[in-house]
Write a structure and sequence with these properties.
With 233 residues, the chain is of the alpha/beta class. It has one domain: Purple Acid Phosphatase, chain A, domain 2, CATH 3.60.21. It has eight helices and ten strands. The structure holds zinc ion. Zinc ion binds next to loops.
């Protein structure tokens, strides 16, 4: 079975639509989402609805949780907090009730799926260095753990090899971000896993960044959130 693993859509509808169109040409059996459907972008309800339609499941991200008031925005930087306040005012009842029902972590097909870290998922730990990554390996029992949250894609094997993914080797995999990539490449990112062969690859999809940026500016969201999409940071 081929699974598309998407994360961090962040209410970027044009990126989400472009990724779904691309996925539809790749013989994918199902799509799963690691969370952060909302926050930063101008289309929170549209993205929640599309995820409900297209994804087998979506997981709770910190922006989803803050959007429904479960995580305090005290932990957010100024830009993120401004966007969350705007998002809270936009979310309709249907979106809120969908977001409220999201799980934090799911194990399936010998893989673990979680937004930030398998180590206390509700703490939203950022896995940015080897030590934190090493700790993460002690907190899942499957052979692959898929995460998002930092918006920077990588693969890390249990032996510490970075970006040298090998099927069958226990690994932690960050699938990057659909709606706000931060690795210097503005194209939307997501991962594709073949559960039979354990092959995994990161894919990049160009999308209409200007449309996403214009919508952010017209919504009155911070201009920096529009500008950063062109830079991919
Ligand atoms: Zn995010």
């Amino acid at each position: 079975m081929r699974i598309a693993i998407i994360s961090d859509i962040h209410a970027n509808l044009s990126a989400f639509q472009a990724v779904l169109e691309y996925i539809d040409t790749k013989g994918v059996d199902e799509i799963v989402c690691l969370g952060d459907l909302v926050g930063y972008g101008a289309f929170p309800n549209e993205c929640v609805e599309l995820a409900r339609e297209r994804c087998t499941f979506s997981l709770m991200g910190n922006h989803d949780s803050a959007g429904i008031g479960l995580t305090s925005i005290v932990t957010f930087n100024r830009l993120a907090a401004d966007a969350i306040r705007w998002t809270q005012a936009q979310l309709n009842e249907e979106s809120k009730s969908y977001l409220k029902g999201l799980k934090f972590i799911i194990d399936r097909d010998d893989a673990t799926f979680v937004h930030a870290s398998p180590c206390e998922p509700e703490e939203w730990t950022y896995i940015m260095d080897g030590f934190v990554a090493g700790e993460a390996f002690d907190n899942f029992v499957t052979s692959l753990c898929f995460i998002g949250h930092t918006h920077v894609p990588f693969t890390l094997s249990e032996d510490g090899l970075l970006n040298q993914y090998e099927p069958g080797v226990r690994s932690l995999v960050n699938v990057g971000s659909v709606g706000q990539p931060r690795d210097g490449n503005p194209d939307a990112a997501f991962g594709l896993l073949d559960t039979a062969t354990r092959e995994y690859a990161l894919h990049r999809v160009p999308y209409d960044i200007k449309a996403a940026a214009d919508a952010i500016n017209s919504a009155g969201l911070p201009k920096k959130l529009a500008d950063r999409l062109f830079e991919g940071n």
